[in-house]
Specification:
mainly alpha; 14 helices; ABC_BtuC-like; membrane; cell membrane; transmembrane; transport
């Protein structure tokens, strides 16, 4: 128990919170056919982080999140601008924007001699779940010890706050979100301001992706925005039930992926472990594959129904 509390409780909890948060927002992205927005935001975080480093001279979490957040919002604006002015498909606009901005980030690193900054594949893609150790987490009593709780990794607090904000947003804005997702024209006629709702949704997607970036990397973020919601969409045509399914799938992927990353190699006779983030994303993909093959709505067409 002590070993689990110290080494696994925090990373597992963070993986669960981030997975379920991204899956909750992913339901509305899937309905709007905007699932790749999360992918784009995860990729264009680099130029934002580099610019924030060049301005502040530090890679502190707040500066990094602000820089990546600004880059994410600029990305969304550029995608919409190119899509409307160039009259191209949204996916094509996404490809142009996030590859261009990623290239700008690399050029800035080289141009200003900041290539030695610790922005490597390990942290950008895989995150650092395994390193989130709670040194004071000795026994169940630590959960009620203010001194021990103060030593919790800060990534847990950030993930929890973002998750809470997302839940509050979905609960309060449920009706405008549903209307804007199914019929933007009707939503505009009802004066629910679908453009503002879209901006708020994309902003929260950016905040969730950036908050998760340091702890779990972009692999989980991209997978969880798409896989649980897409799999849930194949299980039902009811939005409320779809959201429940997506949360169940996200929870299964987070818990199962984290456990398999440590135990699966041992079952095969290897004295090693796998990346928790990679295994969680892989399990989410397998859940989506199973839903594609066996989901009751896999052969149906048409939009989901409101509850």
């Amino acid at each position: 128990m002590n070993e689990f509390m110290m080494f696994s409780l925090v990373p597992l909890t963070i993986a669960i919170i981030i997975s379920m948060t991204c899956a909750l927002l992913g339901n509305f992205l899937v309905l709007r056919r905007q699932s790749l927005i999360g992918d784009a935001i995860s990729h264009v975080a680099l130029p934002g982080i580099v610019v924030s480093f060049l301005i502040t001279g530090t890679l502190a979490s707040l500066a990094m999140m602000l820089g990546a957040g600004v880059a994410a919002l600029v990305t969304v604006a550029l995608i919409e601008l190119i899509r409307r002015l160039g009259r191209v498909e949204g996916t094509a606009a996404m490809g142009v924007v996030f590859t261009s901005l990623f290239a700008v980030g690399v050029l800035l690193l080289e141009w200003h001699g900041a290539a030695g900054v610790h922005l490597d594949v390990e942290h950008a893609l895989y995150g650092n779940l395994e390193s989130l150790i709670w040194f004071e987490g000795v026994g169940l009593g630590a959960l009620f010890d203010p001194v021990a709780l103060a030593d919790l990794p800060p990534q847990l607090g950030r993930a929890a706050w973002v998750g809470l904000v997302v839940v509050i947003f979905v609960v309060i804005m449920r009706r405008p979100l549903v209307l804007a997702s199914f019929d933007p024209d009707f939503a505009a006629s009802m004066r629910t301001r679908p453009a503002l709702v879209d901006l708020m949704l994309v902003t929260l997607v950016a905040v969730a992706a950036i908050a998760a970036f340091e702890a779990v990397g972009s692999i989980i973020v991209i997978a969880m925005f798409i896989c649980p919601a897409a799999a849930a969409r194949l299980m039902t045509n009811r939005l409320g039930i779809q959201i429940v399914w997506s949360q169940v799938f996200a929870l299964l992927a987070a818990v199962g992926g984290y456990l398999l990353a440590g135990e699966a190699p041992r079952w095969l006779g290897f004295d090693t472990s796998l990346s928790a983030a990679g295994m969680i994303a892989s399990l989410a993909g397998l859940i989506l594959l199973a839903a594609c093959l066996f989901g009751p709505c896999r052969a149906r067409t048409g939009a989901a129904h409101q509850d």
